[in-house]
Amino acid sequence: METEVQKKVVIFASGAGSNAKAIIEYFKGHNNIEISLVVTNRKEAKVLDIAKDNKIYTLYISKSEWEQKEKVLEILASYDLIALAGFLLKIPDYLIEVFRNRIINIHPALLPKFGGKGMYGMNVHRAVKEAGELESGITIHLVDEVYDNGLHLKQAKVTLSREDDANKISKKVLALEHEFFPKIIEQYLSKL
Ligand code: GRF
């Protein structure tokens, strides 16, 4: 009997980790994709508890350790894909080069609108509100050296009402994130 090749995913996250949770739950018991590691740049990130609850290895890499190219590459050598799920540190260029087309990010807006440096978390949703947008959504994209610039793998939209504040917008968008991020990771990995 042929055994399927196991693909290993590492999640990078800095915060609450609701996307990481959605991804971990989706791939539980999956036949050829495994979430093997959660990496963070924040010791106190809640995502670490989610990973531990699910018996997934965690690793904290401090800002200065990211500069140790050989060490970081050695740690990540055996992974097929890096999923950025609310990771707030700019990915070093050496990592992008080695993992070319193998780093996926989720952005909580419809890029190219509301993207770029400083556009993360609630900043994005506040900007959407201030612009009076009547829709927002998600963009799942490959990561290259420029913020929010890589190839789009998926966009999904949600309708906003005039009454929605930034908080409400973030909730609507987060629901889309949880629905689509794991599926797009699965689809993309099947082609790698
Ligand atoms: C999400 O909105 C994600 O799109 C953005 O940061 C937020 C992270 O939320 N990049 P969580 O930590 O997954 O709950």
Structure description:
The chain is of the alpha/beta class and 192 residues long. The protein has one domain: Formyl transferase, N-terminal domain (Rossmann fold), CATH 3.40.50.170. Helix content is 34%, strand content 22%. It is built from six helices and seven strands, in the order βαβαβαβαβαββα. The chain has helices at 18-26, 47-53, 69-76, 93-98, 121-130, 166-191, and strands at residues 7-12, 33-40, 57-60, 81-84, 103-107, 135-142, 152-159. A seven-stranded mixed beta sheet has the order 3-2-1-4-5-6-7, covered by helices on one side. Helix 1 links the parallel strand 1 and strand 2. Helix 5 crosses helix 6 (166-191). The model has no long low-confidence stretch (mean pLDDT 95). The structure holds 5-O-phosphono-beta-D-ribofuranosylamine. 5-O-phosphono-beta-D-ribofuranosylamine binds next to helix 1 and helix 6. The site of 5-O-phosphono-beta-D-ribofuranosylamine has 15 residues, from helix 1 and helix 6.
